[in-house]
Amino acid sequence: MRTKIKRVKKQQLDHAIIKEAGEILKNGGLVAFPTETVYGLGADALNAGAAGKIYAAKGRPSDNPLIVHITEMEDLKKIAAVVPREALVIADRYWPGPLTMIFEKTDAVPYGTTGGLDTVAVRMPSDETARAVIAAGGGYIAAPSANTSGRPSPTTAGHVEEDLAGKIEMIIDGGPVDIGVESTILDMTVAPPMILRPGAVTKEMLEELIGEVAEDRAFYEPGSGVKPKAPGMKYRHYAPRAGLSVVEGDMNQVVAEINRMAEEKIAGGSKVGIIGTQETVDRYTCGDVKSIGTREDEATIAAHLYGILREFDQDQVDYIYSESFAAGGMGSAIMNRLLKAAGHHVINV
Ligand code: AMP
Ligand code: MG
Fold first, then answer.
1. What torsion do the CA atoms of 212, 215, 216, 219 make, to the nearest 10 degrees?
2. Pocket test for ligand 1, best of 55, 100, 185 (most atoms within 8 A of CB)
3. What is the CATH number of the domain that holds 278?
4. Which of ligand 1's atoms lies nearest the C-alpha of 121?
5. Are 62 and 98 found together in one domain?
6. Atom of ligand 1 nearest to the CA of 183
7. What would the pLDDT profile of 41-79 be if each residue is shown by its tens digit?
8. What's the domain count of the chain?
9. Which domain covers residue 288, as residue numbers?
10. Quick check: is 227 in a domain?
11. Which residues of 174-194 are buried (b: 16+ CB within 10 A; e: fewer)?
12. What percent of the chain lies above the pLDDT cut of 90?
């Protein structure tokens, strides 16, 4: 299959391109498009055959459910059987935006979209290109991250092309995404609602609105035997090809330990990548050092994370050492993704 790549500008969408994308989706095809979180791989969520193609293109395990993207609040009732009052309060504040909520599903949603579950995950993105494509494609678009399963999520159209060229009908290139990590997932079928995946809409933000919010401890305690409640969270995800270790502790000691380990590996003939910050990059003495951003601005760090992991893949490094980041706020989403990429390999100094 030849994959068409079409460039669009958010401020001035090319309607012919959006219409073409909509036709592909309505005919059961696959279109990758930018959202504010990461690039999504879209298919008609109400067509089990179309949703099935997503699993094939990504190499995604079939028990890993898809998020259904909508653009209008009134479209929710067709796919969600029960919408608790708190969900309406949250939607009022954070939709459109980087938040997914889980509800009991209606019969309109095929099990092929929900990985066999009786619940459905729903998000209303804010990105103008995403909204136009979803609306043109019929209003209910399943769109997981547009990467090969197990690789870092795509934050540019180039990343999508690396993984999916030749496997999907179209890629819409809207430039780099804003946020760079996937949406927060909030399960509204339990009381109190539970965060299954941390993202840009934080626990603190949700609690301010509705009171107590629980967290799936499995994403911080992988060794505890707790099974993650979002099926997708159990897979080793977002992984670069090199072995990644996260180094935690006092910053001076972290830098010293990374320098020591990098020197040792390089002396042994390996290629080493280092993920530092603007505050520390000048203190690394060897290896391929990249700054992920300044610690003053966690949003930039989140936006750069997946891109840096892909760059290290391209540079074919054998080992990557990364500084760690404080939990809380956006830091929780950054650490969740970084630890998953590292297969939870953490070095304490
Ligand atoms: P992605 O679309 O690639 O960001 O992945 C979607 C994530 O949402 C995966 O971790 C899924 O396991 C999770 N998810 C989707 N639907 C459900 C659901 N009904 N219940 C729990 N988790 C879900
Ligand atoms: Mg994904």
1. 180
2. 185
3. 3.40.50.11030
4. 16
5. yes
6. 4
7. 999 999 999 999 999 999 999 899 999 999 999 999 999
8. 2
9. 243-348
10. no
11. beebbbbbbbbbbbbbeeebb
12. 89
How far is Cα 69 from Cα 304, in angstroms, rounded to an integer?
Answer: 24
Q: Please report, for the domain that includes residue 145, its CATH number.
A: 3.90.870.10
Residues 83 and 186 in one domain: yes
**pLDDT single digits (tens) 247-298:** 999 999 999 999 999 999 999 999 999 999 999 999 999 999 999 999 999 9
How far away, in angstroms, is 136 Cα from ligand 2 center?
23
Taking a C-beta distance cutoff of 8 angstroms, is the pair 231, 218 a contact? no
Rounded CA-CA distance 79/339 in Å is 33
Task: Check: pTM over 0.85? Answer yes or no.
Answer: yes
Q: What pLDDT sits at residue 328? A: 87
- Residue with the nearest Cα to atom 3 of ligand 1? 144
Distance 153 CA to ligand 2 centre (A): 6
Q: Which residues line ligand 1 (CB under 6 A)?
A: 64-65, 67, 102, 114, 117, 119-121, 144-145, 182, 185, 196-197, 230-233
Residue-wise pLDDT tens digits, 246-255: 999 999 999 9
Residues 167 and 22 in one domain: yes
Is there a single domain that holds both residue 46 and residue 183? yes
Neighbour tally for 277: CB within 10 Å: 19
How many angstroms separate the alpha carbon of residue 262 from the centre of ligand 2?
30
Query: What is the pLDDT at residue 169?
Result: 98
Is residue 333 in some structural domain?
Answer: yes
Q: Which ligand has the nearest atom to the CA of 148?
A: 2
Residue 202 lies in a domain: yes
Give the phi and the psi of residue 302 in degrees, each rounded to 5: -60, -40
Give the environment of ion ligand 2: residues with CB less than 5 A. Answer: 145
312 C-alpha to center of ligand 1: Å?
A: 27
Q: Which residue's CA is the nearest one to ligand 1's atom 5?
A: 144
Residue among 200, 157, 164, 139 nearest 60 (CA): 164
The answer as to whether 23 is a domain residue is yes
186 and 308 housed in the same domain = no
Residues 199 and 248 in one domain: no
